[in-house]
Input
Amino acid sequence: MANRNCLIAVHAGAGYHSQSRTDSYEVLCARACSQAVAVMNSGCSSIRAVAEAIKVLEDSDITNAGYGSNLTISGSVECDATVMDGSSMYFGSVGALSGMKNPVLVAEKLLTEQTSGLLSLGRIRPSVLVGDGARHWAISNGFSPIHSQQMVSVHSQRAYRNHMKKLDEVESSKKRLKSEPVDAALDVKISAPLDTVGAVAMDCHGHVAAAISSGGIALKHPGRVGQAALYACGCWAQDGREGRDSVAVSTSGCGEYIIKTVLAKECADVLGCSSDTSTDLSNVITNKFLHAQSLEAVQDDKLVGVLALKSKPPQSEAVEGKYEAELLWVHTTKSMCIGCMSGDDELPFVEISRLPESCLAGQTVAIGGRLFSL
Output
């Protein structure tokens, strides 16, 4: 079989991306795409590509993943990450992991170790590890630990101090007023990024993979695990078979709500056999998320973003042909930063998709996409 082209797409989160930092976000996504394409053009798999793309995003202090992540209420960094392989359907994930520079690489190692078969005495290799157990496993598998404070950026520390000051003010008011309601102007939501980062890819053999990484919500309780560590919630990858196209999905947004809707797999199940992808993906977000029965009691804004890759193989394996691939992104947040690149592209495509000013975040669906012939 002749080699096929490759494709990578990344997102730097669905949330709010200020106009003043637009260039920084776009440069970061472009760098992640370029790194992933270089990896695949050298012969590596889509698994390696998504992990390398996420590593670039984790190393930046402007994303809520890896270095510079939101801090827990105790002032520490705890990260979640998953990598999933569409060919084998194996996945590896870590939750509430601290003291590791790149959580996504630990998740990738958990995935690839599963291909080595059973452990001694017939023990099944782990797919998901959390907390100290994840950290100890990483160290035993060659990862070097770092001090937790090395994961804290100047920006995240400043944001933490501001959030804790607001929290103290609200809690003090509640104690002082007791039965009286707290001033609404005081008890406002903290403005912290929800922008979990993600990547989807197809390699030169047509295999897809997906990855996701997150520092979680600001002031979260230590040990909290979001969608980025949970199977079928944060990301999904599945090679096509039996009339279904290949699909890779990565999500971003409020983890608790994404978990309750198992959103990554919901999107993949629909896209795998869709002939009208934009409409069908928009309907999933509307019907399976915004209006989901599991979220009916939610009074908060339902904030989410999804990046999806769908690819259709050549009609005949005996005749050299092209993969038809489609990238889609959809969000209910104010903005979502996207980057993508094929193996033939000289430069990545980058865009910050924004809701129209007249639309309300958490209630409106914005969607975009690009087509590729690879």
In short: The mean pLDDT is 93. The helical segments are 22-41, 46-58, 103-113, 131-140, 154-177, 255-261, 263-271, 277-290.
